[in-house]
What does this fold into?
Amino acid sequence: MASTAEIKQFIKDAVSKDKVVVFSKSYCPYCTLAKDVFAKVKQPITVIELNERDDGSVIQENLAELTGFRTVPQVFINGNCVGGGSDVKALFDSGKLEPMLIG
It folds into this structure.
């Protein structure tokens, strides 16, 4: 099993490597909502399905320490957590999401 330091490094590497990273659970409707929003704006995303990984619960615990919330999805744009599914939808609906994806 990976150490806490290794898990934290995994999260840090994942969110810094790709523009959009979604920590998700495959059966979660809010996760699907977030993924659908990025599909609408044709933004490629990296999805990490926590329920399909042996270390998923440990990753989720470490995400909670980093972001202050345990729920999924946890969406990162350019390395910054922007919230969950309804947060991403609100950014999209207000026109604020697409400018965050440029550059």
Observations:
- The chain has one domain: 4-101.
- The chain has a mean pLDDT of 96.
- The longest helix spans residues 4-17.
